[in-house]
Design brief:
It is a single chain. The protein is mostly helical. 72% of the residues lie in helices and 0% in strands.
């Protein structure tokens, strides 16, 4: 392959990637919330958006779990339910239980956060068995195929890209519930 062939190959590949990025960007539109997010939360949420658009789905899941953890910790401290020192000793599961008991997290939100937490834990602790189970829950297409097909977005509607989108949209809505939108 000479330089000209390489340039043509890269141009074609970049155009295909651009079309995928536009498709993913459309999945995140429109976004409008009434109140401003604190600047740091805006940075985190928009970074997660950019990661999704760029196809970094594992990073989206990990960052969304971190955002949710920060939101819950802040709400627990701000609401004077616990001290900063106490909340730093809690893990995400404990924060969700407490937030649900204090009724600022609904049953549906609790279930969504726990789903995100389990996916995050499987990815961060490299638990291939749990990731394979997640792959199988996506139906016959993934059934028995294994985690590599879950992590690689073979389908536009399945695998890690689908879960990343679901949890990103949830994280955006959950964050805006407490803070609003762009500063």
């Amino acid at each position: 392959m000479d330089e000209e062939e390489f340039r043509k190959y890269q141009t074609t590949r970049d155009q295909e990637r651009l079309e995928e990025k536009v498709r993913r960007w459309k999945q995140l539109q429109p976004v409008s919330y009434g109140q401003p997010l604190p600047e740091l939360m805006w940075e985190y949420v928009t970074t997660a958006d950019a990661m999704f658009i760029d196809g970094h789905f594992i990073g989206v899941v990990l960052l969304c779990a971190g955002i949710i953890e920060l939101v819950l910790a802040d709400q627990l401290v701000t609401g004077i339910h616990v001290t900063r020192d106490e909340v730093e000793r809690f893990n995400l599961e404990q924060m969700v239980i407490l937030a649900h008991r204090l009724e600022f997290v609904t049953e549906e939100e609790k279930d969504a956060i726990n789903g995100l937490r389990k996916l995050r834990n499987a990815l961060i602790h490299a638990n291939a068995g749990k990731i394979s189970k997640m792959a199988k829950r996506h139906g016959d297409f993934y059934g028995g195929v294994g985690m590599e097909f879950y992590l690689f977005p073979l389908s536009k509607e399945g695998g890690i890209s689908s879960d990343a989108l679901k949890y990103l949209l949830f994280t955006r809505d959950f964050t805006s519930k407490f803070y609003g939108a762009k500063p």
